[in-house]
Amino acid sequence: xxxxxxxxxxxxxxxxxxxxxxxxxxxxxxxxxxxxxxxxxxxxxxxxxxxxxxxxxxxxxxxxxxxxxxxxxxxxxxxxxxxxxxxxxxxxxxxxxxxxxxxxxxxxxxxxxxxxxxxxxxxxxxxxxxxxxxxxxxxxxxxxxxxxxxxxxxxxxxxxxxxxxxxxxxxxxxxxxxxxxxxxxxxxxxxxxxxxxxxxxxxxxxxxxxxxxxxxxxxxxxxxxxxxxxxxxxxxxxxxxxxxxxxxxxxxxxxxxxxxxxxxxxxxxxxxxxxxxxxxxxxxxxxxxxxxxxxxxxxxxxxxxxxxxxxxxxxxxxxxxxxxxxxxxxxxxxxxxxxxxxxxxxxxxxxxxxxxxxxxxxxxxxxxxxxxxxxxxxxxxxx
Length: 383
Known about the structure:
Blueprint: H1 7-15, E1 31-38, E2 47-54, E3 61-68, E4 72-73, H2 77-82, E5 84-92, E6 95-104, E7 107-116, H3 118-126, H4 134-142, H5 147-155, H6 163-171, H7 176-186, H8 192-201, H9 205-215, H10 221-230, H11 234-244, H12 250-259, H13 263-273, H14 279-288, H15 292-301, H16 308-317, H17 321-329, H18 337-346, H19 350-358, H20 366-375
Antiparallel strand pairs: 1-2, 1-7, 2-3, 4-5, 5-6, 6-7
Helix pairs in contact: 1-6, 7-9, 8-10, 10-12, 11-13, 12-14, 13-15, 14-16, 16-18, 18-20
């Protein structure tokens, strides 16, 4: 299974907070930039999209997300929709954003200013986070890395986290409640990287509970994340179990999703072959293009007792229904599977049969045809 040790770094790159400067905060320091607010963002009543842009945090930085109107003072959504001046404030534990500008045609824009909270700075120092840079404080305010959040993490056993880890947990919504519930389902304490990975890929406590109940075991975080990445959900598990008649492993479920061995495919292959099939067989069928239609046709043309391995070998070497029909038309009605494969390997085709006969070979056997392809044609009318 793929490991997710780099998820945290990736998440921080995505929001532009890797390599933040170490400039120390002073009382007069502030961050200034531009804001844009879209009222009709489709995120539901009382919510809107807010974008912040600044160029004084070691270069250009832009971030945007949906916000709750209730978190802002001075904002009347009805009045804003009609247009007019904008004077808003957004208070966070780490500091306060103030916004000035205008609303027009359902959108607002203007200038903003962020001023860190000196009380927060002192409180963070007491929690072990001293010397925070201005841009780090800006990030803590934007993503609401509050002192209460840090204390809640400590109560869950997550002490002394880096500032990068704190931001990543907030960006991806790994709340204290999520950590409590997911830990209870996993039966052990996940790492910060694992918490972030589970939030990114949608591994919820309910998902873990359902998968555990269906398959009768506790899965690792890597397995659960792989389930979500590849679309292994409870509905898929139930349908696969019903079609297989057995419980597949985590790796088998992921392999079936990767290669498209759906419950419908399983049912079709079982009907075509008249027997239960292993997951390995089904995955091999999907990899090599053995479909229910192909299996049924080859059973009719070649033999009703073809094995799964033989069908896969047919697909690998190009033994198609068309090839079998052409050889039948050439006078070879019942060719064993192994000879069909050998003919394709050595290039014995219906056209080659005609060429052999044109050279004077009267009734060449399949073995004769293969040898002639291997060693070359010569006139031997005795065949």
